[in-house]
Every structure is written in C-alpha cells, then in structure tokens.
Design brief:
This protein is 87% helix and 0% strand. The chain is globular and about 75 Å long. 29% of the residues are buried. The N terminus is likely disordered.
C-alpha cells in the first residue's frame, strides 16, 4: 500500500471514529433527561411514605439516587467532553485546562457511580437472601454497615483512576481492577440468588408437608409474595447485566487490543451503561405495585 493510500485510510478511520464519538455523545446527553426525571419521581414516591417502607426500599432509594446523579452529573459531562474532543478542536486548544478538568470529572464520576451501582445490587441480593432466611434485620446498624460497604467499594478503582491521570501505564491496572470487581460482584449475586432458590424450594416442600399434615393455615413464608419480590430483583439484575456486561467486555478488550477498535467499543458500551439509569425507573413502576400506586398518588397531588 502506498503512502497516500495509507494516509487516506487513516483519515477515513479518524472520520468514522469522530462520527461514532459524536453520535454516542449526543445519545448519552439525550438519555440524561429521562434518567433525571424518572429517578426523581421514584425518589419522591418512596420518600412520601404513602406505603410501608422496608430495607429493600432503602436500597432501592440508593440505587435511584445513583442513577439520578449519573443523569445529572456524569452523562452531561461525559457527553460534553466527547463532543469537545471530537468536534471542537478550537475550544480544546483555547481552553486545554478546562477541557482536561471536564474530562477528569466525567471519568471520575462515571467510575464512581458504576461501582456504587454494582455494590448496591450486590447488597440488595444479600439482603433478599438474609430476609428470606429470616436472618435479616432492619436495625439502623445493619443499614449503616450496608451504606459503608456501598460507599467504600469504589475506592480502589478511584485511586487507580487518579494514578492513571498521572501515568497512563496504570490504565491496564484500572482495567484489571474493573474486571475483578465485576467478577466478584457477579459471583456474590449469583451465589445469593442460588441460596434464595434453595430457600423457596425448601419452603415449597414444607408447605406441601403441612397440607398433608392438615396444618396448612400456617405456611412457613408467603411464597407468592417473596417469589414476586425475588423476580423483581432478577429483572433489575438482568437489566443491569444487559447494560453493564458490554462495558465488562470492553474492559477485557482493553487489555488485549489497542487503537480505534478499543475506543469504539468503550464508547458504545458507555451508551448502554448510561441507558440503564433511564430504564430502571420504568422497571420499578412495572414490577412494584407499591411504587406504581405511590406514583399515581404523587401525580394526582401535583395536579391539584
């Protein structure tokens, strides 16, 4: 291939990369609107106390707060940073410090909220397991410990992210930590749901036994209620998986490849990560009757 052909190919790749960067930035910016509005409504519904709140609702509030802040902070900054880097070279040259700070805050907040989301989902699965095994407690110290775990879990990634800003060699370490955290959280969540399945199965057998012994007026637990609760958690986990697993895959690819393909995979995976913040409120409304009723009451009060 001649030098001119190589230059032409390079320009075409750069043009395609810029178009992809621009498109993903616009989509991420647009997704911030439903993320902010939807999660604000969910939080207002839960905090109005029109229904009995449980530890599950407290964790759900934490997840909604994280999604709200993602739509309010991370998505606009991430989109702005990519738009400036991809389409406004003049702005980047005239204000390099501002553009650099914008990118740093966008990346820092994104890693922070991704880690908090994963930690919250992990704690929620453990809470369901302990609740069904009747080893859970709604005391304040349990909630305090859960909050501490969720807030402290992002620290390793954030420390390495800060080091990456000083030395790019740490970028591979950041990818490795991200992969390790994802794997650990998914392992814990899978184990917790397996234990929940065992509990449900055991109580089904106990209920059948009580029917035979004519003691069916006192089942061990309300199976229908807890099956629905666990099913809701599974739906949330499946949505999280669909939106976050591509980011996990792109982190793995970052260790194996370099160049345009790696950057494109990261850009596309971030669209799905931010999409989860917009879709979660709709999932809560669809699956949770108390949230649905509370939201209707909230909207009715706003009209009057």
């Amino acid at each position: 291939m001649s030098e001119n052909e190589q230059n032409s190919t390079s320009k075409n790749l750069d043009s395609a990369g810029n178009e992809l960067t621009f498109s993903t930035a616009v989509v991420i910016a647009l997704l911030s609107v439903p993320a902010v509005a939807g999660n604000a409504l969910i939080l207002a519904t839960i905090w109005r106390r029109t229904f009995l709140r449980t530890s599950f609702h407290s964790l759900l509030s934490g997840l909604a707060v994280t999604d709200l802040l993602t739509g309010l902070i991370s998505q606009p900054l991430y989109a702005s940073s990519h738009l400036i880097n991809g389409q406004n070279a003049a702005v980047k040259l005239d204000n390099p410090e501002v553009v650099s700070v914008l990118g740093i805050i966008a990346g820092f907040s994104t890693y922070l909220f991704i880690n908090i989301t994963l930690a919250t989902m992990t704690v929620m699965s453990i809470e369901r397991w302990l609740h069904m095994s009747r080893r859970s407690s709604t005391t304040s110290h349990r909630r305090y410990y859960a909050a501490m775990v969720i807030l402290l879990s992002p620290i390793p990634s954030l420390i390495v992210y800060i080091l990456t800003l000083r030395e790019l060699a740490f970028r591979y370490t950041l990818c490795k930590i991200t992969i390790a955290e994802f794997s650990f959280c998914y392992l814990i969540i899978s184990f917790a749901y397996f234990k929940v399945y065992q509990i449900i199965r055991r109580h089904q057998l106990q209920t059948q036994a009580t029917v035979i012994s004519q003691n069916f007026d006192q089942p061990a637990i309300d199976l229908a209620k807890y099956k629905k609760s666990v099913a809701t958690m599974l739906y949330i986990f499946l949505l999280l998986s669909m939106c976050f697993l591509p980011f996990f895959v792109s982190s793995v690819l970052s260790l194996l490849i370099t160049g345009e393909v790696k950057e494109s995979s990261i850009d596309l995976s971030m669209v799905l990560v931010f999409l989860s913040s917009s879709l979660n409120p709709g999932l809560y409304i669809w699956r949770m009757r108390d949230i649905r009723r509370g939201l209707k009451q909230l909207l009715a009060s706003l009209r009057t």
